[in-house]
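Structure tokens please, single chain.
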Amino acid sequence: MLARTKYLIGLLFLISVFASGQDPQFSQFYANQLYLAPSFAGATEDYRVAMNWRDQWPSIPRVYQTYSFSFDKAVPNFNSGIGLLATYDVAGSGDLSTTNIGILYSYDIQINDDWHIRPGVCFKFYYLGLDLNKLVWNSQITTGGTLPPIVPPPFDNVADIDFSTSALAYNDKIWGGFTVDHLLRPKTSFWGDEAFVPIKLDFYGGFQIVSRGRLKKKLTEVMSVAANFVYQGKYYQSDIGLYYYNHPLVFGVWYRGIPIITSQPGDAIIGMIGIKTDQLNIGFSYDMTISNLITSSGGAYELSLIYSFTGTMIKRGQKIHAIPCPEF
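Here you go.
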């Protein structure tokens, strides 16, 4: 039975290389800000390193594992920020993998005493790989041994380049922006067919309901409402939720789905708990499935780790205007 399951999963992912795919999505989208939008590059008073891991549908063996690493820093003398983002997504028994490595730049424009606009760009390298030796073929599991062996046609792993851009507007309590990704539409076919990653549109924003208290110039209690809407190809996703921070603990709960448009009540209810200190943020979340996959998927687990450390430019008294969005 296990061999049959591996075969079916491998076959599904082999077929998928001919179709347009979608990007992985993180439930803790503000804990991976550079993945959300290049406008967030350098939007911190410190140097910042972030690591994220997501395990989607763990009840199905070897389905979706996503890893992300980012580094960014402010460049106050030029009202700018720079960053590096690497993501690795692997799926299926054949290790169908997607790797992206990008360089990001953002520029902060203060339009009046309250509002800032922050455009950003990202240039990235795209790589698609598949290990056919790890797939289980029909000829390997048939009991009679009468079927001829399956020999897959030769193929090359896919390498391409990509580009994304974004814009973010914010003041001390409100933020909102958009990202347009895959503008160069990188190739997704191992055999040279006309298959490309579809353009992705991402709209996000929110506002602080409660913000009070000060500890080393930072708020000690914040309650925020945040939303994120993603559209890519024929796929769309909507997240809306509530974050509550009371130093040093952070709690979050939000809903994923569009029940008015779809026939299902939604995709998931997500709960999150985290710890936020001056230098270290740790967040853990779980997606509880509420769609038709509720009995088979196992939901999704996600872990985020953000470490910040102060640079010499900030120590000399230069100030970076903080974006009020959550960090989980």
